[in-house]
């Protein structure tokens, strides 16, 4: 199967005629176009050639040259007419609109061509000669320190997209880019000129300028990791990153960088900033023949992904030099958002195209040539493919759905959780996460997309904008971070979901956004962002992305017949909303080069995983005649309740006039809403609702608290603040001390225990757990508990056989390596407290015996709960550098007429468990004397075997289990005599199920007499060499296994070690 063919156009298929009148759609289009031109015309009149417009004061906005630390302004504003670059692709899209409507068609095309000509006039044509000098700068030779990410997505992406429209690779209705003369150069940067009505001849100026800008960003990729530095100076490069290999690493690693004012230079970037460059840089490389950009961007992407946690989550901040994560935060919002986007969209963009030619690059060897890829080995073939990015998207979203998606509230949402454990980390969601539903729609996850988008729709309805952060704990704007600077993410997702569903609901959502912006953000000279969505306070800034993205997605939403909405090709919108595509034909290349390209084999699709969504579902047919499946959803009240919308006054409903006293104006009339929001979006017509629609009842969650008594006030305080917990593994916390500990349980129903109800621990003390975290208890602490609230139930069918062996000499150790596998733990971010990550497995030193032992116990405990057939890990644990090794094997207790209970001994403590004697490790194991009996089938064992040995070790096979025990002579029970028979099965096949051994007959002595004292027997299904390994044991012990119940109901994530 070819999943790409189905994924590419998931959100772009024209399924049916929208259930909104054509004249209403035309009105919405006109309003959107007027909105764009109100911003565009004022920018060109009052701000161009500066970067942005101040719409309240009608003045330009430029970078702050006096304060380089004002990165909120300087990162994006590079002093190169940013708003013009960001707006060109929107103009091109409007140029493809209906000719009969104002400002679309020929008018917008003329403005697009005028904008290109003006940019070239100010910044040159991208050539090295005199024509490369513009009236403002020679290309991008500007003393501007900018953020790499923002410059790539806005600058490089905007130029490339406009270039693709200019040469006809992206469609514009009525535009025929025929060259005035046909050139056939070998240089892909010199295209046959296309004459425009304004007299300008386009011959690739924007592509050459994009190349110039891209080359000025390459110094940032000179890092030991391949992850780019966050910032670069467009003229001077990266002199402020003194550790860079570009400078020969003149300072010691880890030494602080300082900027020109003596302040610390930040080397921290983010996952999105480092991993979201592949679209723009790949298109730049494919259009110019210069492979440096594609290779550098892909390397940065894979370097970030290679540092994901054990549960598959990426973090937010990451250090470009060390590759270490900075902070434990993970989610889908700010700092991580577009990484997921570029995983899927890189797959789409590369679909059907040949592999990049990494052997040669046009222009190589020129003076000042920089190639950061020379610092690293070439990327392997498999990481160059479209398939690799699709697989990454699948795995990344799978981890997001498992650990970030949260359904414990009134309505599901995506939270910000701990990168290593999935444990809740913050109590807010941010507006940048609103992009994710649209990405889900592109990937075919339409149901999940609709569900997720409803949260942002309800929030927009409540605030008439999206606050930057919203607290689901406080049910309001988080910490005063309530601005909305004109962001596009919500309307972008609305557009994609409408393309995938054709549900008219989303047209009315778009109408709501349009009308709210007109009402709240209008300014004399453009459109102002909101400083506070609650008060309506405005910002004196119109961000470039408002014209470049927000108005673009709104227009395409209201123009279902636009050529881009019907384009059958693997094109994508970048994270800045710029359409990008890799052309099938090569402009400006020689006939020989075109023939060579045609003979190249394209990427073949080899990756397919049926466990993931690999196709786009058909739109859901609504059950009613209203035409909207979303309006008929029964969970609408759930999301209204989650966002507090149902308690919010509705200013668009009935109003009551009231007289109030104003300090300045005296008595004035104001209007008070008479109702709260009951429907959303507020523009939704009642006829779109089903006449018999019902909302699902809010989920009733049964919770319970368990509190263990504290012996004193100190232990109570310690437990309250969760200091009695330690995270040794991503699977969850281990309880060090029960005193004063409080557990919150929530009742659920699932498949884990055959459909019956079960509890899940959701909170320990003040610590809220992730959806898939376990809580680990020591058997020494809980094995005796039989309270109704917390009962440890012993597993009578299995035990753990613990044993310790002395370390072999060097020669003897050669055989040891063949029989067992020493347990190593990755020295990365497994432990919660760790901040660093590594892409390779690094064995810990033998000093880490504690962590190794408990990690192994955690894994074995989890495996026993979720995979009952799985045997123990064949791992050895170092007790110290030259000391003995500790092992553990799962054993099955015998059943049948001849079975006897295992000995009533105290559980052998885990290494570094609460009662483990680390000074004398062997003393922890009660049985020291072992007799090796082989198969024990042919004749009785010597009388001394059971009398002088506490363990008899046998091999499975040769005769029945009963026959083996019948060959053990009679003996008088004593602490030094036989306690347990261990039968080792080394020949077990992987398909063979673990079953308890059956003793078919009562135990007899070799003389045939009924045995007065039965012998306990267990079966170890081990690995080859386990019999020999156990034969060398200096001590053997046993641990029982437990499950936990509360009020008679299992606690599924309580694991007893």
From TrEMBL:
- Active site residues according to the UniProt entry: 150 (proton donor), 337, 468 (proton donor), 489
Q: Which processes are annotated in GO (biological process)? A: carbohydrate metabolic process; endoplasmic reticulum mannose trimming; ERAD pathway
Record GO terms (molecular function) = calcium ion binding; mannosyl-oligosaccharide 1,2-alpha-mannosidase activity
Give the binding site residues for Ca(2+): 575
Main localization is endoplasmic reticulum
> Where are the residues of the annotated region Disordered?
989-1013
Q: Name one GO cellular component term.
A: membrane
Enzyme class, broadest EC rank:
hydrolase
Q: Which domain of life is it from?
A: Eukaryota
Tell me the keywords, alphabetical order.
Calcium, Endoplasmic reticulum, Glycoprotein, Glycosidase, Hydrolase, Metal-binding, Signal
Q: Which Pfam families match?
A: Glyco_hydro_47 (PF01532)
* Location(s) in or outside the cell: Endoplasmic reticulum
Q: What is its EC number?
A: 3.2.1.-
Query: What is its cofactor?
Result: Ca(2+)
Q: Which residues form the signal peptide?
A: 1-22
Query: Could you tell me which PANTHER family the record lists for this protein?
Result: ER DEGRADATION-ENHANCING ALPHA-MANNOSIDASE-LIKE PROTEIN 1 (PTHR45679:SF5), ER DEGRADATION-ENHANCING ALPHA-MANNOSIDASE-LIKE PROTEIN 2 (PTHR45679)
Q: Which family does it belong to?
A: Belongs to the glycosyl hydrolase 47 family.
What name goes with this protein?
alpha-1,2-Mannosidase
